[in-house]
From TrEMBL:
Keywords: Cytoplasm, Hydrolase, Nucleus, Tryptophan catabolism. It comes from Peucedramus taeniatus (Olive warbler). The keyword Hydrolase applies. It comes from the Eukaryota. GO terms for molecular function: arylformamidase activity. This is KFA formamidase. Residues 26-124 form the BD-FAE-like domain. The keyword Nucleus applies. Pfam families: BD-FAE. One of its GO terms (biological process) is L-tryptophan catabolic process to kynurenine.
Length: 244
């Protein structure tokens, strides 16, 4: 419902293809009063890598487009069609496409929730030399994410993903924290008071790993919210995370 409201009220470009895959599309919500250049919040949805889509992901747009920020919802191939390596590559390629296609975007802020926070965190470990483009990522907001995939290998979540231990390790941000470059973005790791102990543990340990590698990182423990409304409330102007 929040996404429908956003689509009705904002200037949009929907279903913009950034590749040939069925779900390789972006929904772009443009600022109400765009200046010559404007920042963009790039949102990567969650759903345990196997449900939801960009079509559920525009709810955060209204408070941001009214402040001059574009919001971009990223589509990617969810499991079982999508392999974990593929999803990570798709999100990286979506940023390359944005930079090349929309030169008026100045400064990208990544935001991901749950599985989307995992994919956004994997973007931070990207070697951009293989893409010939370096997106200007100013910040990353990682909300209730998973940063070590090994614990889910023997759970029902892996039934659709079919990850081997090697795939899980290769795609675990905890294991791929690069030393912070001089221009490394700021990272905000947010976790809900009522998230499960595993989400809370991983958020704490990943933020510590980033800090140890020299990144500028803050851990925000949000009171009174759970795994779902921590992100859904981004539709509210007054919500702490929207303000941040």
């Amino acid at each position: 419902a929040g996404t429908e409201r956003a689509r009705a009220s904002a200037q949009t470009s929907l279903h913009v293809p950034y590749g040939d895959g069925e779900r390789e599309q972006l929904d772009i919500y443009f600022p109400t009063d765009p200046s010559e250049t404007f920042p963009a919040l790039v949102y990567v949805h969650g759903g345990y890598w196997q449900c939801l889509s960009k079509d559920d992901s525009g709810f955060a747009a209204p408070p941001l487009v009214s402040r001059g920020v574009a919001v971009v919802a990223v589509g990617y191939d969810i499991a079982p069609k999508g392999h974990m390596d593929t999803m990570v590559l798709q999100v990286r390629r979506s940023l390359v496409f944005l930079v090349e296609r929309y030169p008026r975007i100045r400064g990208i802020y990544l935001c991901g929730h749950s599985a989307g926070a995992h994919l956004a965190a994997m973007v931070l470990s990207t070697d951009w030399t293989e893409f010939q483009v370096v997106p200007d990522i100013k910040g990353a907001v990682l909300v209730s994410g998973l940063y070590d995939l090994e614990p889910i290998l023997h759970t029902y979540v892996n039934d659709a993903l079919s990850m081997s231990r090697e795939v899980a390790q290769r795609n675990s941000p905890m294991r791929r924290v690069p030393p912070a470059a001089p221009a490394a973005c700021e990272v905000l790791v947010a976790v809900a008071q009522h998230d499960s102990p595993e989400f809370r543990r991983q958020s704490q340990e990943y933020s510590q790993a980033l800090r140890a590698a020299g990144w500028s990182v803050s851990l925000l423990d949000l009171a009174g919210v759970d795994h779902f409304d921590i992100i859904e409330r981004l539709s509210e102007d007054s919500y702490l995370l929207t303000q941040v």
